[in-house]
Design a protein that fits this description.
The complex is a heterodimer of chains A (523) and B (249). Chain A has 523 residues and is α/β, with parallel strands linked by helices. Chain A is 41% helix and 14% strand. In chain A, the strands form 4 sheets. Chain A has a 5-stranded mixed sheet. Chain A has a 4-stranded mixed sheet with strand order 2-1-3-4, covered by helices on one side. In chain A, strand 9 and strand 10 form a beta hairpin. In chain A, helix 7 packs across helix 10, helix 9 crosses helix 11 and helix 17 packs across helix 21. The longest helix of chain A has 19 residues. The radius of gyration of chain A is 24 Å and the shape is globular. By secondary structure, chain B is an alpha+beta fold. Chain B has 7 helices and 10 strands. Chain B has a 5-stranded mixed sheet, with helices on one face. In chain B, strand 8 and strand 9 form a beta hairpin. The longest helix of chain B is centred in the middle third of the chain and has 17 residues. Chain B is globular, with a radius of gyration of 18 Å. The chains are: A alpha/beta (523), B alpha+beta (249). The interface between A and B is medium-sized, with 32 and 35 residues.
């Protein structure tokens, strides 16, 4: 007769990503630790981890006990002792978040596989979870060409918004004439309502470093940068810590894992300009110059930092790399649909019951994300639209919620997949006001280099203000559209070209709201 | 391939490899509107007036910053391009404080000439009347930011040809403004050699000689090209016909 296996020890995990810290997870952690000192006998260890997904219910606390897993949302400090001593207490029911709901059940974690499981400030936990093992595998058993082949096969496309095939980009850099190359991680996530990359940076920074190191190996780079926006202080602090730890453990620096591959990786912090998420502006900023875009071509893949070939990938793209190399490009390509392979992380916010971070296979319907997982609007009324792609994207009306979430389908509807921000619009939001909100953002964030974006968006904003204030009249909508088309067609970089999209897409689906606003103008 | 052949408005043209689309268009004897580009300075593609339609490109391309390619079919004129150019010129007028009647550049202003060229009989956008500073600290020259269109010619000529880098553009969006040194009064910027090249290339009346009235003002906008050719090719050529088109006649 074999003895029964030992009961798995109980363990608590508290979310220490920005959302939950803001909601008070620091105070909750302190009260749990205080309560623990007053208890005789064993108390479950409390681990600080990254994002537990359902940000809107923070601070989140996971309780992995012998009888399964519980998730608590918004647990008050007074309940700390009760939770430690009587985890089954019915009084705790009020703060239990059911894990069986679609928000958790329909997630498909690839990029976020360790997020919420490891302490983002501990390289030991990252190593125990398997981070850097794939890098070692690549360095010792694969050639750069073989690594790139897996990425090509995976069908991975850039997750920053443009959706450029990642394998093709890597090849383009790798196949440049011999010489030095650079890798750069674009962590300048700036779309309003987007917090996917922040989640990765704050929850699992070593994964990003591993992905970036694999990318550097694959394209033949030996130096690079991570460019993080200054508005992400926690992400910067954790990344800094992770970089130092990775260097100390030999996962960065010379002769990594005993191979001939070296990588010098440095952190650069932005200075608050949204436009620096545009790759040529980002490179200018890294180089110490004014952060303005320049015309492409030449693309950074040919002519980047110091005029040398430079690979620029977004955080989420690079964070998908370790899984692709570990399980194979074909495995990754088996997830998703059509031209959109793999999973995508979305940040769900706005008028939606479950606010937070979800990772789903590309190609699921917008309805599944917003209604099934998100739980629909807060007051239970039907939602009006979903804004995707931030100030460069557009709105999808509720009638088209069955659209699959992939690169092509959203573009056909005049929006874009974008970096992954999804803002749910409720019935009470007037669409011209939403368009005005985004145009105002573009006005404030225009770098001012090219005329259509610098001066055109100002005029667009004022046209929308006249419409909203009931001062617009006949012909004003046509003038608005004409200027939108001009700014879109003639601006220098992607930001200006996409700035009118929120206006054009809301005009496409909600023109009656604009017409009503214009008709309300007294003659 | 050392020579490229392409078609501009139906005409076949040949240009040396490495030529810009703008050079190809000029080789066809066609003058494109422009306010930021000046031969001899690094092109920046900021004014968006030299846009041309290139077959196969989903959007119009600025000719100054795009390279000509073999077999390209380029159109410099269309109803849409004309509409875009007129809107652009109107946006320039609306964003600054451009009052021709009291401007030293009246008659020698490229923005004014552009308004005539695109048929701008009035501006359909409300004027923004921005509050902008005037810097008259320099003994010979004045900077009137009200007339500045942020073309950055002065920035480039000072950095690339004079090598002094007095000028820069600060802030962003509609707050962008030309600054001297570390946003100091011009006269306090030690690196300024008072060479006056910035004044010569200014398309409007933003930078001007204190002594000049509109009758005396004769900007030498061909200067960057002449200086560059003198340095690189060892020859001094007269003003090019393309550039003088927008000056006083």
């Amino acid at each position: 007769m074999t003895p029964s296996p030992p009961r798995p020890p109980r363990e608590l995990r508290i979310c220490t990503a920005s959302g939950c810290l803001q909601a008070g997870s620091g105070a909750l952690q302190a009260s749990l630790e205080r309560a623990a000192t007053g208890i005789d006998g064993p108390v479950p260890p409390l681990r600080r981890v990254g994002c537990l997904r359902l940000c809107g219910r923070g601070p989140l606390l996971a309780d992995d006990g012998p009888r399964g897993r519980q998730l608590y949302g918004g647990l008050p400090e007074e309940a700390a002792a009760l939770l430690l001593e009587q985890p089954e207490a019915p009084a705790l029911e009020a703060w239990r978040v059911p894990l069986q709901q679609p928000f958790f059940q329909l997630q498909h974690p690839v990029v976020l596989e360790h997020c919420g499981r490891v302490d983002p400030e501990s390289i030991d936990e990252a190593l125990a979870a398997g981070t850097y093992a794939t890098l070692r595998q690549c360095l010792t058993a694969l050639t750069p060409g073989q690594v790139r082949e897996q990425v090509r096969r995976s069908g991975l496309r850039g997750r920053g918004g443009a959706g450029y095939p990642t394998g093709l980009k890597w090849d383009t850099v790798a196949l440049q004439p011999p010489g030095r190359r650079w890798v750069v991680c674009n962590a300048d996530e700036g779309d309003p309502g987007a917090f996917m990359d922040r989640t990765v940076l704050e929850s699992d920074p070593h994964r990003l470093i591993e992905g970036l190191a694999i990318a550097a190996f694959a394209v033949g780079a030996d130096r690079g940068f991570v460019y993080v926006r200054a508005e992400y202080p926690l992400a910067i602090a954790r990344l800094r810590l992770a970089l130092t730890a990775a260097r100390q453990h030999g996962w960065l620096g010379p002769a990594i894992a005993g191979s001939r591959f070296s990588l010098d990786l440095q952190l650069r912090v932005g200075a608050g300009a949204y436009v620096c998420g545009e790759e040529t502006a980002l490179l200018a900023s890294i180089s110490g110059r004014r952060g303005t875009p320049r015309p492409r071509p030449p693309y950074p893949a040919q002519h980047g930092l110091q005029g040398e070939p430079t690979l620029i990938n977004n955080v989420e793209t690079l964070a998908a790399i370790p899984a692709i190399l570990r399980q194979g490009g074909d495995w990754y390509a088996s997830i998703g649909s059509g031209e959109s392979r793999g999973t995508k992380v979305f940040s769900l916010s706005g008028d939606v019951r479950h606010t937070g971070v979800v990772e789903v296979p590309l190609g699921v319907s917008l309805r599944q994300v917003v209604e099934t997982m998100g739980g629909g609007s807060r007051d239970g009324r039907p939602i009006k639209a979903v804004q995707t792609g931030g100030p460069s994207g557009g709105c999808i009306p509720a009638a088209l919620l069955d659209t699959p979430v992939d690169y092509g389908s959203l573009r056909e509807l005049g929006s874009m997949l974008g970096s992954g921000g999804m803002v749910v619009i409720g019935q009470d939001t007037p669409m011209p006001a939403l368009a005005h909100h985004f145009i105002r953002f573009s006005v404030q964030e225009s770098c001012g280099k090219c005329l259509p974006c610098r001066a055109g968006t100002v005029q667009l904003q004022q046209m929308l203000e006249r419409i909203l204030q009931g001062e617009a009249g006949a012909g004003d909508l046509e003038r608005l559209e004409e200027l939108c088309r001009m700014v879109a067609a003639t601006s220098l970089c992607g930001l200006g070209q996409a700035a009118p999209s929120p206006v054009l897409s809301s005009l496409r689906w909600f023109r009656h709201e604009y017409e009503a606003a214009c008709a309300a103008t007294p003659p | 391939m050392s020579v490229l052949t392409l078609t501009v408005d139906g005409q076949p043209v040949a240009v040396p490899a490495g030529a810009s689309l703008l050079q190809a268009v000029e080789a066809a004897g066609i003058s494109l509107p422009r306010l930021c580009h000046l031969d001899g300075l690094t092109p920046v593609g900021a004014c968006r007036l030299c846009l041309v339609a290139v077959e196969g490109s989903p959007r119009p391309l600025p000719a100054c910053v795009n390279a000509a390619a073999e077999g390209q079919v380029v159109r410099t004129d269309s109803e849409e391009l004309r509409r875009f150019r007129r809107l652009a010129v109107e946006l320039f007028f609306a964003e600054g404080n451009h009052v021709c009647a009291i401007c030293v550049a009246n008659g020698s202003c490229e923005l004014q000439a552009m308004a005539v060229a695109v048929g701008m009989d009035h501006c359909r956008f409300p004027y923004q009347y921005p509050h902008r500073r005037v810097d008259a600290s320099h003994p010979q020259f004045t900077l009137d930011r009200n007339r500045c269109i942020l073309c950055s010619r002065c920035v480039r000529v000072c950095q690339e040809i004079e090598g002094a880098h007095v000028w820069d553009i600060a802030s962003r969006g509609s707050d962008c403004q030309l600054i001297a040194g570390m946003d100091q009064p011009w006269a306090e910027v030690d690196s300024c050699t008072s060479c006056g090249k910035c004044v010569e290339v200014c398309p409007t009346g933003a930078l001007f000689h204190k002594d000049d009235g509109s009758a005396e003002r004769q900007p030498r906008r061909d200067l960057p090209r002449q200086l560059r050719e003198a340095r690189e090719l060892g020859r001094w050529t007269p003003p090019s016909p393309h550039r003088s088109g927008h000056g006083p006649s």
